[in-house]
Amino acid sequence: MRLVPLKILAASLCFMVLTGCGGPDTSKLPLFKILNDSLVNARKEAVSAQKALAGKDFILLYFSAHWCPPCRQFTPELVKFYNDHQAKGSYEVIFISSDRNQTDMQNYMRDMRMPWLAVAYGSVCAQQLKDHYSGQGIPRLVMLNSDGKIISDSFKGKQYVGPYKVLEDLNLLIAGRKNSLSTAIIAKRYKVSGLASGKGRNLAIINGDFVSKGHSLDSKTVVGEITDKYVEIKVEGETYRLFPEVKTDGK
After folding, report:
1. Is the peptide bond before 139 cis (omega within 30 degrees of 0)?
2. Structural domain boundaries of the chain?
3. Has domain 190-242 been given CATH number 2.30.30?
4. Which of 106, 107, 126, 206 maximizes the CB count within 10 A of its CB?
5. Cα dist. 180→87, 183, 231, 238, 242 in Å?
6. How far apart are CA 193 and CA 208, in angstroms?
7. Phi then psi dihedrals of residue 5, to 5 deg
8. Each residue's pLDDT tens digit, 7-44
């Protein structure tokens, strides 16, 4: 995925004045209840939120509009990310339109080949989502858990960090889930018995040897970042985070 520098995207952010909308209300929102009977596809057909979002751990709310140039720039990137990664993670994207009318919204979805669902144009649900999660400008991407709690946002306070930041965070979550079982196997192969600092650099003790960042454990494994709590190693391009073994007295 091609990442556009955040400062360039921020410079062309489409700001909107929305009456009554400030920063997002992070209080718990009954998301599934609000979305129920409010989702539609690109053909304007109603879709059950309960069925569409069943089993999804994360929901990405995409606030966008066709009239907004930065939105038209970002949307193809989001479509590509979705098509490339959707099968790898338990998440879904929901489009909330700020287009001028329903026809513009449907044309936007069709022209950009949006593979996800949208909230019905002008619905109470759409306004509720804008009140809770948007209001500062578009394009805006907000990642929620199934309870409606914000996990990642295109805004950090009042600072616009851009929707690409949310995709980066989601990518890390997807990679973390994929690696969760593999990490246990890797941890048995490369045992971390301690972390230390020496000669201006952080060190780790792996399989009894002191190593630093960039050290090759074998032909396919390289030591990455070392902190005071964990060490990252890269095995055939995949990154794993390992923690020192906890020793017990056996009692």
Report:
1. yes
2. 6-174, 190-242
3. yes
4. 206
5. 17, 5, 16, 12, 11
6. 7
7. -50, 135
8. 334 434 565 433 233 344 433 445 667 777 789 888 88
Whole-number Å distance between alpha carbons of 107 and 102: 9
**Cα–Cα distance measured from residue 241 to residue 176, given in angstroms and rounded to the nearest whole number:** 10
Q: What angle do CA 214, 220, 223 make, to 5 degrees?
A: 25
For domain 6-174, the question of CATH label 3.40.30.10 is answered with yes
pTM value surpassing 0.70: no
Q: What 8-state DSSP symbol labels residue 63?
A: E
Mean pLDDT of 47-75: 90
Distance CA 91, CA 166 (A): 13
247 vs 154 pLDDT, higher one: 154
